Amino acid sequence: MKRSISLFFIVPIIVSCVQIPYDPDIDYPDKYEVILELSNMPKNEIFLKANKWFISNFSSENSIILISDKEYGYIIGTIFDSFVDVNTFYQMKFDVNIEIKGNRVRMTFENPHEKYTGTIYGTISTMMGETDDGNDYKPDFRRMTSNKHLAETNRRWRKNAESFNLFMATEDDW
To answer: What residue stretches are annotated with the DUF4468 domain (predicted)?
Structure first.
């Protein structure tokens, strides 16, 4: 019993110590761009695989494809994700642009925004209470300016670009 009670208090303390790894001496950009050369693949196949990658990787109900134009080779979408900094939860959103010209792909991640959604001690609506009209308090997204949060966003952008590159290299052999 004592062990259960002590775990009840120790686990939140340990979880609240988790921090985003970043180097404070680096100015993390609010845009990430990568260009891939896919020499063995025609434009139509690149477009279809890019669309498939987008849908399979960003399956949140809020993440959406805004434009998907096969003729011009554009896929533009808004992605929603979440992250934890110390004991605070944030939701982030950013734009992904995929442009296809010939057998080249330019992927651009940009426009990062964030909003505070709560802590390990409770969600924002339970902490902030209700608004005057009886609705839960819901903050708006704001432009991401924290270098620490931009570091996490850049890490995720690079990871997504690597995932895209690996996905494009796989063969559809069925």
So the answer is: 32-113
Spatial neighbors of 106 by CB under 8 A, at least 6 apart, are: 33, 34, 35, 36, 97, 98, 99
CATH number of the domain residue 33 falls in: 3.30.530.80
Our count of domains for the chain comes to 1
Residue 130 included in any domain: no
Q: Please say if the pLDDT value at position 41 is more than 60.
A: yes
Q: Is residue 59 part of a domain?
A: yes
| Under 8 Å between Cβ of 58 and 48 | no
What does the pLDDT average to over 146-169?
91
Write down the mean pLDDT value for the chain: 80
User: What pLDDT, on a 0 to 100 scale, did the predictor assign at position 149?
Assistant: 84
Residues near 81 by Cβ (< 8 Å), separated by ≥ 6? 60, 91, 92, 93, 94, 156
